[in-house]
Amino acid sequence: MDRDWSLIERCRSGDTAAFDELFHTHKDRVYSICLGMMGNPDDALDALQDCFYLVYRNLHRFDGRSQFATWLYRIAVNSSIQSLRKAKARPRTTPLSESLAVEPQTPPSDSHDPVIAKAMAALPPQDRALMALYYWQDLALPEIAEILGCSHTAAKTRLFRARERFKSLYCTLNPEARR
């Protein structure tokens, strides 16, 4: 926290190298959150870029009441959700000749079971955020609650419901899992 705070103060003074250092310190975890939500490495990189752009523009608003990482992860979750909403609203049309030439997309390499990737992709963005923060980032429920701006109890309830939706999707996609 002290190191981040020192870098933030340097950034606010116009030191671009300090922002580069903040970026390199936190980019892997933010990318992991974005990938968990987006499900696609290219989209996750776009969300990562959007996130750090927002951080750069709004660093003056960070007041230090929470840890910098908590504030950053909240921005990552929100920017990923916004990206998912924009992608859903944007029609995706590809000429038939191009779509036939494209190889089917594989799930992220950290997923050994492609059904998990499909079930995660079918979840609503808020559920994906919870699952990514809890399972991939190993964050505790109080941290997740702070990132999402809700109470500990609400985060726990939302995570329970997200798990239930994931389980239902997983069992639908993989009937053998019901046994």
Number of domains: 1
CATH topology: Rna Polymerase Sigma Factor, Chain: A
**Strand segment tally:** 0
What is the CATH first-level class name?
Mainly Alpha
N-to-C terminal Cα separation, in Å?
A: 47 Å
The arrangement of helices and strands along the chain is HHHHHHHHH
Instruction: Estimate percent helicity.
Output: over 70%
* CATH level-two architecture: Orthogonal Bundle
Shape: elongated
Overall mean confidence score, pLDDT: 83
Count the DSSP helices.
Answer: 9
Class from secondary-structure proportions: mainly alpha
Low-confidence stretches: 91-110
Report the β-strand fraction as a percent range.
under 5%
Structure write-up:
With 179 residues, the chain is mostly helical. The protein has one domain (2-89, 109-178): Rna Polymerase Sigma Factor, Chain: A (Orthogonal Bundle). It has helices spanning 2-12, 16-38, 41-58, 68-89, 96-101, 114-122, 125-136, 141-148, 152-173. The protein is elongated.
